[in-house]
Design a protein that fits this description.
single chain
């Protein structure tokens, strides 16, 4: 795929994902947890689009090694964020 086409597709996909997140937040009657889950989903998809389209993650001779490193970093980040949220919620419920 041509670089200009790739960047254009990535840019349009990022804009669409951002607008979808804004639409879900402002114009739907979903619960807070549903909105939060959908927005996080859009954020992860947008991060993947930007890694693939703009940062050329899989290109080059060591593209698979780079992909593995990014997946490992994502897993560590998710464990840290979810663990922190879990500890904060548990501590908060004990103090009320």
């Amino acid at each position: 795929m041509n670089t200009i086409v790739k960047h254009t597709v990535g840019f349009i996909a990022s804009i669409v994902l951002t607008l979808l997140a804004v639409f879900v937040t402002l114009y739907t009657n979903m619960t807070f947890h549903a909105k939060t889950t959908i927005i996080f989903g859009f954020a992860f998809i947008q991060a993947a689009v930007q890694l693939l389209m703009f940062m050329h993650l899989t290109e080059g001779k060591d593209g698979q090694v780079q992909s593995f490193k990014v997946i490992f970093a994502i897993i560590i980040t998710l464990v840290t964020v979810v663990g922190t949220y879990w500890v904060m919620q548990g501590g908060h419920s004990h103090h009320l």
